[in-house]
Design a protein that fits this description.
Blueprint lengths: L17 E6 L3 H10 L7 E6 L2 H10 L4 E5 L7 H11 L6 E5 L4 H9 L4 E4 L5 H31 L11 H18 L3 E8 L2 H8 L1 H18 L5 E6 L2 E6 L5 H16 L2 E3 L2 E3 L3 E8 L6 H17 L4 E3 L2 H4 L4 H14 L3 E10 L4 E13 L3 E2 L2 H10 L3 H21 L6 E5 L9 H12 L6 E6 H4 L4 H13 L2 E7 L6 H6 L4 E4 L1 H4 L6 H16 L3 E4 L5 H9 L4 E2 L8 E2 H10 L4
Parallel strand pairs: 1-2, 1-3, 3-4, 4-5, 11-12, 14-16, 16-17, 17-18, 18-19, 19-20, 20-21
Antiparallel strand pairs: 6-8, 6-11, 7-8, 9-10, 13-14, 13-21, 13-22, 14-15
The site of ligand C2E has 22 residues, from strand 14, helix 13, strand 16 and strand 18.
Length: 583
């Protein structure tokens, strides 16, 4: 074993011992190589082999990091050893080929086999060997780091960073697998939706870190309650869901539900505070309560609301009692039909510049007049869509409508940027970014002409996947806007880390701005910060002339609100622009 230092520079600094396998049938050559490597800087453990088959055995048994391989061995050739390693062990170990022949043909053949480098024995020196070995190790180190990063990314595309549970995308994948398998084997399974009771209160009172800790602990407890064959997931926020695969009789299912409730309700100590968060659980069973994943989710959601509204810990979906529950519960069911029957439509609200009195962009807002429920505001149905897995469809439908409208307006020579509101959930979706780009391509709209409004709360989750999607969006040219700024937990880190083009000041600060100097001071500070960071500020919910005046004096010239115009249907929007000379 060698752990000696050398004065040669550029030698890799690996944290662990490197195991080098020297394969050479010539004892003198092997000894010479060991001598040459005495001055190798990184901790190096040399093992050797004098035949190809001995080398293969060592590779199988030991963790070899690097191979110095003689081209001609007694029993095999170097290339044959390499092929056998890759076939038998399914491994690629960085290899440096050494040969006495030194001809070009051998060198090319070695390179073709994927060896890192090729050294002729004739003029081999300690320095040459150390430099080549160092380069190979640096290369390996980089490959390992890259591999680690890739592993982390693929992990994050399937698992929730905070709890380590499956994320919503893996959950819905497993759900469709469960449906397919149960169709084939005629077996049953259950879907459980869990919503924490006091999570929002804990978050608001003790802050995000405490909230995260609660989620982490609940995740840990849930994974202990269920079997490995079940899927436990965090769908987002404080919503957890499980797929219970086993064929359980009802009494056992009830025992399991009880265990989950008991385990979540145990106290959690955070910063010397003893906290208790209860939960409401909704259950739906395949095939009685639905034969499709989405129906099962919607019905588990309904059951969960039944549990919440009747102050119970859990409810199993029951069609007959569903009618008794609040109208809100049927939202998810009606939303299915709304998407199929194209009941959703968009309205557009102008954002204008007070100085030039011209329109700078328009915000697209979704509307839903349900034939069953009447008008349902987006504030109400978007969270339901998020919970029951319909948000992807709702988002696709809205993006499609907005870009179709944008393209139609473009053809009429009317080309202003349009803003689309995004649910936080979309930033964690694997397919969202590609879909968004492909719809833009289809309608031939440049991403530069689309503003994506993302609420501050969505950003404060700080998830790596959110960050990755945001970076992709920025790279593709989309403009990003922070919506409802100041209404959630302000995360200046996000403002620092992500390049936003626009900050929309929540109407909470605008409503009384003409009467309350503290609101005015907050708005002035936000405007100043945005200006210093090269971002545009827009005041939301401006309803009065006095508010406009104050905003102008505070340097906030961009506004949106009823004082200018309420959201309008597409045809009325163009009329409004023309009538007010806005373009
Ligand atoms: P938001 O993005 O902050 O949208 C502004 C909301 O303020 C809209 O309500 C708009 O109609 C309302 N508003 C505009 N001017 C005034 C005013 O002067 N006074 C008052 N009191 N309100 C004003 P809306 O359309 O009900 O939307 C509510 C929220 O629902 C939106 O807040 C947004 O977060 C969400 N939302 C709306 N459309 C979509 C959508 O297509 N996708 C997603 N994911 N969310 C949407
Ligand atoms: Mg908005
Ligand atoms: Mg807003």
């Amino acid at each position: 074993m060698n752990f000696q230092t050398t004065s040669l520079t550029n030698q890799p600094n690996m944290d662990q011992n490197i195991k080098l396998l020297v394969v050479d049938d010539d004892d003198v050559d092997r000894e010479r190589i060991s001598r040459f490597l005495k001055n190798f800087k990184s901790p190096l453990m040399i093992v050797d082999a004098s035949t190809g088959s001995e080398a293969l055995k060592k590779v199988t048994k030991e963790q070899i990091d690097l191979i110095l391989l003689d081209y001609n061995l007694g029993d095999m050739t170097g290339p044959e050893v390499l092929k056998a390693i890759s076939i038998e062990n399914n491994k690629t170990i960085p290899t440096i080929m050494i040969t006495g022949m030194g001809d070009e043909k051998t060198a090319i053949e070695s390179m073709r086999l994927g060896v890192f480098d090729y050294l002729p024995k004739g003029n081999l020196t300690a320095e040459k060997l150390i430099v080549t070995l160092s380069a190979a190790l640096n290369h390996t180190k980089m490959q390992l780091e890259l591999q680690k990063k890739n592993d982390r990314l693929s992990y994050l595309s399937l698992y929730d960073e905070l709890t380590g549970l499956a994320n919503r995308s893996l959950f819905f994948d497993r759900l469709s697998q469960a449906v397919k398998q149960s169709e084939r084997t005629k077996s049953k399974f259950s879907v459980m939706m869990i919503d924490l009771n006091l999570f929002k209160e804990v978050n608001d009172t003790f802050g995000h870190q405490a909230g995260d800790e609660i989620l982490r602990v609940v995740g840990e407890r849930l994974s202990k309650v269920f079997r490995k064959s079940d899927t436990v997931a965090r769908l987002g926020g404080d919503e957890f869901a499980c797929i219970i695969q086993s064929k359980m009789v009802k009494s056992n299912l009830l025992k399991l539900i009880d265990k989950a409730i008991q385990s979540i309700s145990q106290s959690i100590v955070i910063d010397n505070h003893v906290l208790k968060v209860g939960c409401a659980i909704g259950i739906s069973n395949y095939p009685n309560h639905g034969v499709e994943g989405k129906t099962l989710m919607a019905n588990a959601d309904i059951a969960m609301y039944q549990a919440k509204s009747s102050q119970k810990n859990y409810c199993i979906y029951d069609k007959s009692s569903e009618r008794k529950t609040r109208a809100k519960i049927t939202v998810s069911e009606c939303l299915f039909k709304a998407l199929q029957n194209k009941e959703l439509y968009m309205v557009y609200q102008p954002k204008i510049d007070l100085e030039s009195n011209k329109i700078i962009s328009a915000e697209a807002l979704v509307r839903w007049n349900s034939p069953i429920l009447g008008y349902v505001p987006p504030d109400e149905f978007i969270p339901v869509a998020e919970r029951c897995g319909l948000i992807e469809e709702v988002t696709s439908a809205t993006i499609e409508m907005v870009l179709k409208q944008h393209s139609a307006w473009n053809k009429q020579g009317f080309d202003i940027p349009l803003a689309i509101n995004l649910s936080a959930k979309m930033l964690d979706s694997k397919v969202f970014f590609d879909n968004l780009l492909s719809i833009h391509n289809r309608f031939q709209i440049s991403p530069k002409k689309t503003i994506l409004e993302i609420t501050e709360t969505a950003l404060s989750s700080c998830r790596l996947t959110t960050q990755l999607t945001l970076n992709n969006l920025i790279r593709a040219g989309f403009k990003l806007s922070i919506d409802d700024f100041g209404s959630g937990f302000t995360s200046f880190r996000q403002v620092r880390d992500v390049i936003f083009n626009e900050i929309k000041i929540d109407r909470l600060f605008i409503a009384a701005i003409h009467e309350n100097h503290r609101d005015a001071a907050i708005v002035r500070s936000i405007v100043l910060m945005a200006k210093n960071m090269g971002m545009n500020t827009i005041a939301e919910g401006v309803e009065l002339e006095e508010q406009m005046e104050i905003l102008r004096s505070l340097g906030c010239n961009n506004i949106q609100g009823y004082a200018i115009s309420p959201p309008l249907k597409a045809e009325n929007f163009i009329q409004w622009c023309n009538k007010n000379n806005m373009i």
